[in-house]
Amino acid sequence: MDEFALINRFFRTAANAAGPGVKLGPGDDAAILSPTPGCELVMSMDTLIADRHFPADLPAADVGWRSLAVNLSDLAAMGARPRWALLSLSLPQADADWVAEFARGFGELASSSGCVLVGGDTVRGPLAITVQVTGEVPTGEALLRSGASVGEQVCIGGVPGEAAAGLAAWQHGARSGALVDRLARPAPQLALGERLCGVASACIDVSDGLLADLGHLVTESGVAGATVHLPALPVSAALAAAGDEAARRAWQLSGGDDYLLLFAWPAGRPLPDGCHAIGHFTADTGVRVLDAEGQPVEVARSGWNHFAGGGQ
Ligand code: ADP
Ligand code: MG
Does ligand 1 have an atom closer than 6 angstroms to the CB of 26? Predict the structure, then answer.
């Protein structure tokens, strides 16, 4: 099957041709879209390279899901609602079975999140996927990384560290289970992002690791620092069973790929369901982690933890 046959079969579908706000979907030289009056467009793009951003033997449906999920997570972090996506696929060969599975996983998340695939590109090359997404937010209401102030709480939208634990499990041969699912099928927190609009003063999605991404909030907000209280980090049963305390601490603080929202929240205000206050922004310089006794915890490494240990 050649490139054109693949495109026609899997991506030039009725849903893509006639989705909301889609005047013209895949098939022409470019798509034509109708934005919602009163909204601003919010755009993001991410590239996933096999064996760097996902294990090359990850099932194609999961690769499809994940390639859209990491992009939608950026929209969630802005409080935006997803509208349209573009997909650039670089494939070593025109493998119809692989593309069918990829399209199925991509399509499942696209339809459940209201995002329509309106075009893209298909080329022969090493396995790599680039997705560009466009979302919308009411004018002036987007959540930014800047805006946190000293004294506000540092909050997270779930249990950090599960995807990193899932990657460790994958590398030891596990191919299913709650932790592997968190790695294979990250769930972008779109509803939470919209809920945070107007209340949270800063927000980011955790892709590189909790401390690394908290560092971005600190820097962009222009506050001196932030403190994370180790005992305040939520732990799930699956995570508790996955490794010893040192491993869990490293996954929670430095493991990437969780795609949870990390945000600044006014002190004393009730948190949205499923969210946890784990620390606060400080006038003391730097991002610190304190244990139950208030002693500083040494953290080996903060930052992404990709599959080949390579760059981002
Ligand atoms: P061109 O040579 O003009 O760039 P292409 O053959 O690359 O045309 O694409 C033809 C049509 O198919 C375009 O509308 C494009 O958006 C769509 N398309 C190509 N690849 C993909 C893909 N992977 N996903 C969705 N649409 C695609
Ligand atoms: Mg093209």
Answer: yes
Q: Higher model confidence: residue 89 or residue 9?
A: 89
By the CB criterion, residues less than 5 angstroms from ion ligand 2 are 121
Which listed ligand is nearest to 26 at the C-alpha? 1
Q: Which parts of 139-286 fold into alpha helices (H)?
A: 162-171, 178-184, 190-196, 210-221, 237-240, 245-254
> Please, which residues have CB within 8 angstroms of residue 62's CB and are 6 or more apart in sequence?
54, 105, 184, 185
Give the mean model confidence (pLDDT) for residues 160-166. Answer: 97
Candidate from 7, 16, 89 with most ligand 1 atoms within 8 A of CB, to mutate: 7
Residue 157, ligand 1, Cβ within 6 A: no
pLDDT digits (tens, 9 = 90+) for 139-160: 999 999 999 999 999 999 999 9
Q: Are 264 and 152 in contact (CB under 8 A)?
A: yes
Q: Whose atoms come closest to the Cα of 16: which ligand? A: 1
Q: How far is the CA of 194 from the centre of ligand 2 (A)?
A: 34
Strands 153-156, 276-282: pairing kind: antiparallel
**What are the structure tokens assigned to 44, written together?**
């993001």
| pLDDT digits 0-9 by tens, 279-294 | 999 999 999 999 999 9
Amino acid at 202: A
* Tokens linked to 289: 């982690």
Mutual orientation of helices 245-254 and 210-221 as an angle, nearest 10°?
A: 40
Q: Classify 137 as helix, strand or coil.
A: strand
- Tell me, what amino acid is at 149? S
Q: Match 């929670």 to its residue by tokens.
A: 252
Q: What is the largest CA-CA distance in the chain?
A: 63
Q: Which atom of ligand 1 is nearest to the CA of 27?
A: 14
Cβ atoms < 10 Å from Cβ of 81: 21
What whole-number percentage of the chain has pLDDT above 90?
86
